[in-house]
Specification:
By secondary structure, this protein is an alpha+beta fold. The protein is built from four helices and eight strands; from the N terminus they run H-E-E-E-E-E-E-H-E-E-H-H. It comes from Pseudodesulfovibrio mercurii.
């Protein structure tokens, strides 16, 4: 793949991989371009690709309701929560969980402007791990650290939400 304009060394996933080693990693990625307003990932769909934003801007959203759930008292324009709006400045990653386990996507990632991504899929990634185990372990460790950080953040959010719900319920109980 010829991608001379990509600063591979600036991408966190490849931070400690340089020179000939990085040249071995590059072929498992391709470049994908999307126009503004296109979904890169759709919540609830199955997937096995991981993406790195290399140019553009995206918004990540998640449904606030489970599929089939209707809350008539919930007055909102959209039942989606914006989790983040990101640009290429930190080369964010998306889809690493589906890369590992082919499960359904947990959020929607939509482009806000024309955007470019590095993309790999489960087959290419795991084939690379088998061919280049030492490099594969380095990539895998980076992904594992990212997933662990995500779990820690999510655990903190669950505690906050549980506390807020408990407070709201206790106030409701004293009023009713």
């Amino acid at each position: 793949m010829n991608t001379p304009d990509i600063d591979w060394a600036a991408i966190t996933l490849f931070a400690d991989i340089t020179g000939p080693a990085l040249d071995k990693v590059k072929p498992i990625f391709e470049v994908r371009t999307l126009d503004a307003g296109e979904d890169l990932i759709r919540e609830g769909e199955e997937g096995d690709e991981m993406f790195i934003l290399i140019e553009g801007r995206v918004r990540i959203t998640k449904s606030m309701l489970l599929e089939g759930m209707h809350l008539p008292l919930l007055e909102m324009d959209s039942p989606r929560k914006v989790l983040a709006t990101l640009d290429q400045s930190e080369y964010p990653l998306f889809g690493e969980i589906a890369l590992m386990d082919r499960e359904t996507r947990s959020a929607t990632v939509r482009t806000l402007v024309p955007s470019r991504f590095l993309v790999t899929d489960r087959l290419r990634f795991f084939d690379f791990l088998e061919r280049e185990p030492a490099l594969g372990v380095r990539l895998f460790k980076r992904l594992a650290r990212r997933m662990a950080a995500t779990i820690r953040r999510t655990n903190g959010e669950v505690v906050k939400l549980s506390t807020a719900l408990a407070l709201a319920l206790s106030r409701y109980k004293t009023l009713g």
